[in-house]
Design a protein that fits this description.
This protein has 72 residues and is α+β, with helices and mostly antiparallel strands. The protein has a single domain (3-58), classed as Double Stranded RNA Binding Domain, CATH 3.30.160. Helices cover 29% and strands 19% of the residues. It has one helix at residues 38-58, and strands spanning 10-14, 19-23, 32-35. The chain has a 3-stranded antiparallel β-sheet, covered by helices on one side. Strand 2 (19-23) and strand 3 form a beta hairpin.
Amino acid sequence: MSEQLRYSIVIEWSDEDRAYVVSFPEWGDLVHTHGATYEEALQRGKDLIEGLVASRQQRGEPLPRPRVFAGV
């Protein structure tokens, strides 16, 4: 995986939406997607990140800095 795609993906079940909701901490509170299954949510998340990165690169905009796990 390239450096630019090393972003956090949080997948949580939503009783209200009856779906898995996907959020991306580095990209802010307004960037979300969802899926009926965990696998679908994960794939939609991957697709969205790739699209966000491509869009920013095409416009010459900076990418958010990926969070890095600071092991114990």
